[in-house]
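Progress against Task 2.4 (sequence-to-structure conversion) is shown through the following example record, which the project officer requested during the mid-term review.
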Amino acid sequence: MLDIAEVAEKSGLAPSALRFYEKKGLLTSSGRNGLRRTYEPEVLQRLTLINCARRAGFSVAEIRRFLVARAGDAVLQATIAEKVATLGEDIARLQRMRESLEHASTCTHEPLVECPDFKRMLAP
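Structure tokens generated for the chain above:
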């Protein structure tokens, strides 16, 4: 068993975030050790999933639904498909930005932002 301070330290989240996730139904504590909530060690894997989903743009409500979903949930599958498309667009945009910045790091064009290659790389 891990108490809330250990989970916070290992996950990099504040204890208040853990309590918030528990209140919203994303986590379940195993009980208490004195006044502190305790969690099973597997909570760290769940927090990794939650953090990844949050960074991908899922709302807390969407994550909660995902965590209890069953195969064949058409609404959830549609939401996931939308997120896949959005992430694909984000990845493409970030790759363009990375490539343009790599070019800019060695470009000698004045001014830099007017470089035709730089502009081309940023275009969708």
